[in-house]
Amino acid sequence: MSGTHAASDPSTWDPKFDAVAAAPDHHKIIFENEKLRVLEVTLEPQDEEPLHHHRWPSVFVLDAIHDGIHDYSPDGERLPPSRDIMKAVEAWDGLSSLVVHMAPQPLGRVLNTGDKVVHGIRIEIKG
After folding, report:
1. 77: pLDDT confidence band, cut at 50, 70 and 90?
2. What is the DSSP letter of 124?
């Protein structure tokens, strides 16, 4: 399921799994128009997001990041760290917020095994 979804056109992804619809406790819309959607993303310690996707490319600004963030496929397989996040971490000075340019993300879930809240602003670019 994850392989075929990842290779498909994001505009065809099921809207019921959109991050705001599927994981509303973790994704709050703070602004939206026809070109942009800005989300506040929060993941408490020891919390896991429900299965969801992000159909649009985005810029994700994180207050902080730690090693306790894990991505899982719809089948429950733990995924390697996102290339987008790894590239951003490699260039990060560790002093400011982490800014990540992200491709659309297919169905998955995120688990925070750390003891700190993960919080950020995700600016999704529609179209």
Report:
1. very high
2. E
Which residues, listed in sequence order, are joined to residue 101 by a DSSP beta bridge?
59
Task: Give me the residue spans of the domains in the chain.
Answer: 2-125
Q: CATH assignment of 2-125, given 3.30.70.1620, 2.60.120.10, 2.60.40.10, 2.60.120.260?
A: 2.60.120.10
| Identity of the residue numbered 36 | L
- What is the model's pLDDT at position 41? 96
pLDDT tens for residues 4-25? 445 589 999 999 999 999 999 9
Q: pTM of the predicted model, to two decimals?
A: 0.88
Q: Which two three-digit tokens encode residue 92?
A: 């990060």
DSSP secondary structure string, 27-87?
Answer: EEEEEE-SSEEEEEEEE-TT-BPPSEEE-S-EEEEES---TTEEEE-TTSPBPPPPHHHHH
In 3-state terms, what secondary structure has residue 11?
A: helix
